[in-house]
Amino acid sequence: MDNTRDPSLRLRPWASLVLFLSAYSPLMLILIIKDYDATSPGLLPQNPVFSGILLLIAVFSSLAVLRSVREIDGGLTVTVTKASNKSGDMFGYTIPYMLSFMKVDLGDWQVIVSLALFLAILFIMAYRTQTVFVNPILALAGYMLIDCTFKRGDKEIQAMVVTRQPLAVGDTCRMERMSHYLYVAVKDNANMDKKGTEK
After folding, report:
1. What are the TM regions of this chain, as residue ranges (predicted)?
2. Is 55 inside a domain boundary?
């Protein structure tokens, strides 16, 4: 059966957008700090409305992503056969952070439109390639990106796995599939304890 067109294997656009925005929430905070003017009345940023919007987006998207990942507690039980740490790939998201070293005027509509267009292109690329989980916020929260091969019965699958606990050959985990080649792992402590007892 060809399930390459299965929409259930692709993150919903709104969920992907929240994930994408959370990846750039530190950049939003940096832009707010750069917009801050110590001489302004009330110690507000030069562009308080836009800075306030950025702050809300940064906080909401980050909290939503971290909560969603923590609440994942299901999926298929599998056994890890190969695992390689690819967390360094999360640094790919830091390239647009170079913007923080440039002069960005949040009151200039041309700058805002250009920035929005740039981020929109990055989002489309991330959504099309299903790499929105390659997220520095998850890295800051202690999550890793693992290139993993695992077995369920006689079937062996290779995919990228987001996990908060290291995965080793022989570990038993529950994997929740986010897309064709992306899973979130929940370590099955009960099975791990049983495995240790049997030894």
Report:
1. 12-33, 48-66, 106-127
2. yes
Say if residues 175 and 75 touch (Cβ distance below 8 Å).
yes
Does 3 fall in a domain?
Answer: no
One pLDDT digit (tens) per residue for the chain, 199 residues: 334 444 444 557 778 888 888 888 888 888 888 888 777 666 778 888 888 999 999 999 999 988 888 887 777 889 999 988 877 666 665 666 666 566 667 777 887 888 888 888 888 887 777 666 677 788 888 888 888 999 888 888 888 888 888 888 988 888 888 777 788 887 665 444 444 444 3
Burial of residue 4 (CB within 10 Å: 0-12, 13-18, 19+) is exposed
- Whether 2 is covered by a domain: the verdict is no
Q: DSSP assignment, residue 40?
A: S
Which residues, listed in sequence order, are joined to residue 197 by a DSSP beta bridge?
A: none
Burial class of residue 178, CB neighbours in 10 A (0-12, 13-18, 19+): buried
Domain span at 69: 9-198
Both structure tokens of 21: 């925005």
At residue 4, φ and ψ (nearest 5 deg) are: -70, -20
Write the single-letter amino acid at 33: I
Residues across the chain: 199
Residue 1 lies in a domain: no
